[in-house]
Specification:
- Strands 1, 2, 3, 4, 5 and 6 form a six-stranded mixed sheet that branches.
- The chain has a single domain, classed as OB fold (Dihydrolipoamide Acetyltransferase, E2P) (Beta Barrel).
- Helix 2 packs across helix 3.
- It is α+β, with helices and mostly antiparallel strands.
- The longest helix has 19 residues.
- It has four helices and six strands; from the N terminus they run H-E-H-H-E-E-E-H-E-E.
Length: 137
Amino acid sequence: MHVRPAALAAMAILGLCALSAHAQTTVLSYNEIAAEYAANPEAAGKKYDGRRLAFSGQLMRMGSEPGGTYFGAIAEDGAVFDTAFEVAEQEALKAKFEGNEIQPFQKSSTLVFECTNEGQVGTVVQGLKLTKCRAAE
């Protein structure tokens, strides 16, 4: 089989784009990231702020309004934290909920999801501001 140079170059570019997109997602436990922020907020901010972070765990819509974007997460490492899934991203979550329907305060099955970390927030209770979340699998 003969592959043309142009096709080979296109495949290489597509592969680099896929690697680049994957490289932007950091997979760590929420508790590990929070500990890094507690130990050195400036260094952790440089490392994680503005980046996509992936977590594994269960989700639960917080609130009874259909199409609400506020979800609680229960990570496999035991961390409990807030997330935000835009309505357009929620269709991919439905398969993880009983009856393929997202109901308020109903836990999903375990899934991998990723969010943009906008940094550490809070003064009394600190946490990460995780937005633009979506299912990763």
